[in-house]
Design brief:
Layout: H1 7-21, E1 32-36, E2 40-44, E3 51-54, E4 60-66, E5 69-74, E6 78-85, E7 91-100, E8 107-112, E9 115-121, E10 125-133
Parallel strand pairs: 1-7
Antiparallel strand pairs: 2-5, 3-6, 4-5, 6-7, 8-9, 9-10
Length: 139
């Protein structure tokens, strides 16, 4: 005994199957991601990335660990955007990256006249790789 399926029901079943069977590629991060200078944030993608684009490499950098894992490193104060797309151009990650100095935790700025030296501090302090800034701030 066979049952006939109406064309409308067949279309509905096929559409449901297409949604269920389609690859789950989506944006892994929405909104903004905050990263401190010289610190990293791990991002796990929902699908494999084929390419990664950094809006301003002076603000943030990306290290691709594997097709599904990125590490975003803060390089300079500011805001940029990072986008990862799969091999056919679909977006798998897109986020605004906000890089800040981290509110001074573990850092000290020593002023000698108009010369500032950035110090990295843990159990003791030493000059950081960021070095010095040349001029005093204006009041």
């Amino acid at each position: 005994m066979t049952r006939s399926i109406s064309p409308a029901r067949l279309v509905a079943v096929m559409a449901s199957a297409a949604v269920v069977l389609s690859p789950t590629i989506g944006i892994a991060q929405s909104g903004s991601l905050n990263v401190e200078i010289d610190q990293t944030q791990r991002v796990q993608l929902r699908g494999p990335a084929g390419s990664v684009i950094v809006g301003n490499p002076a603000i943030a950098d990306v290290t691709v660990v594997d097709a599904n894992t990125l590490y975003i490193t803060g390089k300079g104060n500011g805001v940029t955007e990072i986008v990862a797309v799969d091999t056919i151009g679909r977006t798998v990650f897109q986020s605004q990256i906000v890089v800040t100095d981290g509110a001074g935790a573990g850092r000290v700025r020593v002023w000698r006249g108009g010369q500032a030296t950035e110090m990295a501090c843990a159990s003791s302090c030493s000059p950081s790789l960021r070095g010095t800034s040349g001029t005093a701030p204006t009041p």
